[in-house]
Structures are given as structure tokens and as C-alpha cells.
Amino acid sequence: MAIDISTNYAGLTLKSPVIASSSSLTGKPQKIEEMAKAGAGAIILKSIFEEQIIMEVDSERVNNMYGNYPDTENYVSFYTKKHNVDEYINLIRSAKNNTDVPIVASINCISVSEWVEFAEKAQDAGADALELNMFILPGNIEQNGEEVENIYKQIIHEVSPLLKIPLTLKIHYYFSGMANMLYQLAEHEKVKGLVLFNRFYNTDIDINKKKLTNASIFSAPTDISMPLRWTGIVADKINVDIAISTGIHDGEAVVKGLLAGAKVTQAATALYKKGVDYIGEMNTFLKEWMEKNEYERIEDFRGLLAQKNINRPELFERSQFMKYFSDYN
Ligand SMILES: Cc1cc2nc3c(=O)[nH]c(=O)nc-3n(C[C@H](O)[C@H](O)[C@H](O)COP(=O)(O)O)c2cc1C
User: Fold this and answer.
1) How many whole angstroms from 270 Cα to the centroid of ligand 1?
2) What is the pTM of this model?
3) What's the Cα-to-Cα distance from 293 to each of 1, 2, 172, 298, 308, rounded to whole Å?
4) pLDDT digits 0-9 by tens, 157-201
5) Would you state the pLDDT for residue 109?
6) Which of the residues in the chain have pLDDT under 50?
7) How far is it, in rounded angstroms, from Cα 124 to Cα 285?
8) Are 5 and 283 spatial neighbours (Cβ–Cβ below 8 Å)?
9) How far from each other are the two terminal CA atoms of the chain, in whole angstroms?
10) Where are the domains positioned within the chain?
11) Nearest CA to ligand 1 atom 6
12) Three-state SS for 30?
């Protein structure tokens, strides 16, 4: 049986559903080439951060360095911004020149701002798609859910008229009306893909030093549960492709994501821990699993366990331990 793991995502044709997620690895030309050789379906470049584009220069520092001249701040701000943007544009160009896989540029956005112009530059440099890494933590007690959601909508509204390449949104799960918000985001005509989900840089506490510290930057394999649930719930109800992200640590996780209805899977932690060549092993696992289960193409089994297709759709919404595990010991 000829097994074909090619697929398409957000209008792009991919050799594999295993995508290299945005990370510092995908900011290095050498690693990008290795990922492509290992069989990545696409590569999401490291994000350029809104701050890098807008560059709010600390005016006191600038004045100490250059003296208190009125134009200094603007100049330094302009220079730093241009340098960051140029560097990123070069990264896109080199990735395009040295690989034969779709290259997706990524912008970290937290507000509606002048970085919108950057999206066009990324497109002109040859990016095949643009992923917006939308990282708005709803931590302001004066901002209600609707106001936060409107920031998302406004960003999409601002960036989309300039884009000819597909737009995808990498989002988190802090929405009160989760399924409805995913539906609303997917309804925008320019949005072609949703990445479920982004992983925050988490906080921990050191009880001896009584200080805030950073939690692990890496995910655990069990972290797949959350994206799996939401992929399963919305995959067959929204009109865009889903890239499942967080906890895709091996080939088995890739299969799970596809069964839940994702079009593709994104991996970062696995590539740090096991090396970028591990993409090849994930592809091999997928092919062998398909062969064993007699599927020739991904579409033969994708979404088999999405909510609409299972006998007990309530399983995806099961959330209370008490009811189901009250006898557990
Ligand atoms: C060191 C590191 C750097 C990352 N940098 C970015 C980034 O620039 N942009 C982005 O959208 N996600 C970034 N991420 C998040 C990953 O793309 C991914 O969403 C997250 O790690 C969850 O996936 P995983 O379980 O496969 O690691 C980064 C993750 C790590 C570990």
C-alpha cells in the first residue's frame, strides 16, 4: 500500500502534517535547513516581537548614552526598529532560498499598532503565510471579556487588508465563550488557520528565596489534553484548518491530533529535547500507523474522533472528576 502523508493547511500544500513550531530553533538558518531535510511539512519562523518592531526606547538610557538631544530618542528607536526588521526579513529570505518547504513568518502581537506594515514586508520577502502569535493575557481587571476579544478582532481587521498570503492565528485558551470565539475568529474571510494553542511563558515561585521564578519553558506530553479537547469540539464546526499545538512530543501525539480533526500538528519542545531530526521519526511513526490501520491518505482518518463523528459526543465535554472517578483509589 502506498502511504501518502502529504496534506494541506491554510491553503499551503505540505509534504507532512508535522510542522516545526515557532521557537528560537526556527530563528536559526542552519536549523531551518535541517528541519526541512528531516521532513518538516512547514516551518514557522521564530516570532518577531511587537516590541522589537515598535521599540519603545527607554528614554533615560538613551539620554545617558547620547546626551539630552530631542531627536536622539527617535533616531535610536528608528535604527533599532529597522535593524530588527531587516534581520527578520533576511531570515525569511534565507529560509526560502535554502529549503523547499513552506515558510511561515510569525509576529507576536499584543496591540493594534504600526507593526501592521511589517506584515506586508514579510509577505514581500517571500513568506508563504503569516502566523499572528496573539499573546494577550486577560489580566487587567478593568478590561472585560468583550474588550479583550475586540483587540483580537481589531488586529485581524488591521492586518488582513494588506495580506495576499494566508493568515493564521496562534491563540490561547483564555476566552470565556471559547467555542464561540473560535467560531468568530474563523469566520473572518482572511483567516485560514487557527493554532490551538499557544503556550505561555509560565510563572513559578521559589519558596526559599520567596521570589517569582520561571516555570519550565517546555511542555509535558500530557499537555496535549487541552488542545485535543478543543480541536475535537470545534474541528468540524468551523471553516478553517486547525494546527494542534502544545504537547506534540512524538508520532503518537501527531496521530491523536489528526484523529481529533487537526489538519496539521506543530512541535517545539520535542525538537529541543530530541533534536530536529526527530521530525523524521514522527513521520515514520505516522506512516507505519497508517499502514497498520490501512489508511492510504490522511483524509481517510482525519477527524474520525472529532465530536460530531463519535457515538458519545459528550465525552469531549466531560470535565467533572466527581461524577466519573468518585470510586477511584
Ligand atoms: C524556547 C522556546 C521559544 C519559543 N518561541 C516562540 C516564538 O517566538 N513564537 C511563538 O509563537 N511561539 C514560541 N514558542 C512556543 C512554541 O511555538 C509552542 O507553541 C509551545 O512550545 C508549545 O508547543 P510544544 O508543546 O511543542 O513545545 C517557543 C517555545 C519555546 C520552548
Assistant:
1) 11
2) 0.90
3) 11, 13, 33, 12, 22
4) 988 888 999 999 999 999 999 999 999 999 999 999 999 999 977
5) 79
6) 56-67, 69-70
7) 37
8) yes
9) 46
10) 7-325
11) 23
12) helix
**Inter-CA distances, 303 with 21, 182, 242, Å:** 22, 17, 11
Cβ pair 249, 217 in contact under 8 A: no
> Which residue in this structure is represented by grid cell 474522533?
305
Counting from 1 in the atom list of ligand 1, the atom nearest the Cα of 270 is 26
**Closest ligand 1 atom to Cα of 249:** 26
From the CB of 20, is ligand 1 less than 6 Å away? no
80-107 residue pLDDT tens:
667 788 999 999 999 999 999 999 999 9
The amino acid at residue 160 is S
Which of 22, 31, 250, 272 has the most ligand 1 atoms within 8 A of CB, as the residue to mutate? 22
The correct CATH number of 7-325 out of 3.30.1240.10, 3.40.50.970, 3.20.20.70, 2.40.30.20 is 3.20.20.70
User: Can you tell me whether residue 129 is helix, strand or coil?
Assistant: strand
DSSP string, 166-211: -EEEEE-S--TTHHHHHHHHHHSTTEEEEEE------EEEETTTTE
Q: What is the pLDDT of residue 57?
A: 42
Nearest CA to ligand 1 atom 23: 246
Check if 21 has its Cβ closer than 6 Å to any atom of ligand 1.
Answer: yes
Q: Is the CB–ligand 1 distance for residue 246 below 6 Å?
A: yes
Q: How far apart are CA 149 and CA 151, in angstroms?
A: 5
Pairing between β-strand 48-49 and β-strand 129-134 as defined by DSSP bridges: unpaired
Look at residues 290, 288, 312, 310 and name the one whose alpha carbon lies nearest to residue 301: 290
| Rounded Cα distance, 38 and 159, in Å | 33
Write the single-letter amino acid at 33: E
Instruction: Please give the Cα distance from 233 to 307 (Å, whole number).
Output: 5
Residues 6+ away with beta carbon under 8 Å from 28: none
Place of cell 517545539: 268
